[in-house]
Specification:
single chain; about 450 residues; alpha/beta; two-stranded antiparallel sheet; 6 strands
Length: about 450
């Protein structure tokens, strides 16, 4: 490999990318992408549903015994549960309307009443209507019959506030009635059946002479640090190396590659492009790492970024960037236009994004066979292993070493294979290659 020519190409690719508008846009959008969820949650706090909803209640219990309990729960909700410290509404206001039940012996009358109420719901006059079975208080008979259930009917499938209110208010009223009918003291029985609370807390830590439990933010810090590291590593590698597909295709279409190959070998040209693209990605990585560390220091969690986890982060960031870059360079050389490249890269992108699909299970159980297996598979190892290294209980020393060796070997192989594909594909014009053709280029060179 002619190192001087390779570095010249790398320098050209690097500075062309860094000075472009896309680099600046990526630099700005990356924090927006990573903080988008937090921003959306913050905006959601100020986007509360404070509408007034009317609900019809059909209470078929003797003497309509449960309606007063529902009305009292609604009044408490409207007065105490939907306003912040400044008195600003933070939730919906409910208005309940008692409906005289139709004769339960006349099925047609019951059906007509339900139909009329359903029309009022569809017309927007009501949020829902509630039917309370006549045997709900004593619980006798079939527990799933209409006489023993409370039916909430609405066309708002994702609106749970009122049905949650019913689930909290009605059981208490039903128990009170049942205890009163048997002459038992509910208060005494509640005291006997009261279960002790089980709370979750952090470990003990000492600050000076004071010994306290860890705060919630301290307990969450390892998870936050690991997720931030993963997102920086993955998104920066994708952001910095994915433009290589378009760059290679553009040079093929404009015949620039033919001119360049007059003075440099194909492998040296590809390595120069790869080094340039990876340099862009690692520059972004460094910028965002500095910003992330500044935020971690600001919120007091910088101590959770250990030297070991940061060292592995740097290693996996470098090899992941070269791994993705080699795949993108090979794709660009095998295709003749962007449309072909998009379909050609679909399986590769699926493999690259594989660990993100399992991020939830990996966080829940970082020592499971699935998580350990993903941390050993080269394409998912950087993300899975970084997650396990930064989170308790950590990993045995041999596992990150084996994962690092596997990723390094996979990277070397992909760079070698990309070089062989690039050597043939960079001069191909007209019809793009298929997977079998690419395999033949890789094997025969």
């Amino acid at each position: 490999m002619n190192m001087s020519k390779t570095l010249a190409v790398a320098s050209r690719e690097y500075w062309a990318a860094v000075r472009s508008k896309s680099f600046l846009i990526g630099l700005i959008l990356m924090p927006v992408w990573m903080g988008g969820g937090l921003l959306a949650a913050k905006l959601g706090e100020h986007n509360k549903d404070t509408s007034t909803y009317q609900i019809a209640i059909i209470d078929r219990t003797p003497g309509e015994a449960l309606y007063p309990a529902i009305a009292a729960a609604v009044a408490h909700h409207n007065r105490y549960e939907i306003a912040d410290s400044n008195g600003k509404p933070t939730g919906p206001v409910f208005v309940v309307e008692p409906i005289i039940p139709a004769d339960p012996g006349a099925a047609a009358a019951v059906a007509t009443q339900r139909l009329n109420l359903s029309q009022r719901v569809r017309g927007g006059e009501l949020l829902a209507f509630v039917e309370i079975g006549k045997n709900v208080l004593d619980g006798g008979g079939n527990p799933f019959s209409d006489d023993n259930i409370i039916r909430y009917s609405s066309n708002r499938l994702t609106f749970y506030e009122f049905i949650n209110l019913l689930r909290e208010a009605i059981p208490s009223a039903v128990y009170q009635h049942r205890f009163a009918s048997t002459g038992l003291s509910r208060e005494k029985l509640d005291q006997m059946l009261r279960t002790p609370a089980v709370t979750q807390s952090g470990l003990i830590e000492q600050h000076g002479g004071q010994v306290t439990f860890e705060s919630e933010s301290k307990r969450a810090a390892p998870l936050i640090v690991s997720v931030v590291m993963i997102m920086i590593m993955f998104m920066v590698a994708m952001l910095g190396t994915s433009p290589m597909v378009g760059n290679v295709i553009e040079e093929k279409q404009l015949r620039i590659a033919e001119v360049l190959l007059g003075g440099i070998r194909p492998f040296d040209l590809m390595m120069g492009k790869l080094l340039g693209g990876c340099g862009v990605a690692l520059t972004l990585n460094a910028i965002f790492c500095i910003g992330a560390y500044a935020l971690a220091w600001r919120f007091g969690v910088a101590g959770d970024i250990t030297l070991e986890s940061f060292g592995w982060f740097v290693f996996f960031s470098v090899v992941t960037t070269f791994l993705y870059g080699s795949l993108f360079a090979a794709t660009g050389s095998a295709c003749t236009n962007i449309k072909e490249a998009q379909s050609f890269m679909a399986p590769v992108m699926l493999l690259i994004a594989l660990p993100l699909f399992f991020l939830g299970p990996m966080i829940t159980n970082p020592t499971s066979n699935l998580t350990v297996g993903l941390s050993m598979f080269p394409l998912s190892a950087p993300i899975a292993m970084m997650l396990r290294i930064a989170m308790p209980p950590g990993v045995p020393t041999w596992q990150p070493l084996i994962a690092a060796a596997g990723v390094l070997l996979a990277t070397i192989f992909c760079v070698w294979a990309a070089g062989r594909i690039f050597r043939v594909g960079i001069l191909m014009q007209g019809k793009g290659a298929n997977y079998s053709t690419v395999m033949r280029w890789m094997l025969r060179g």
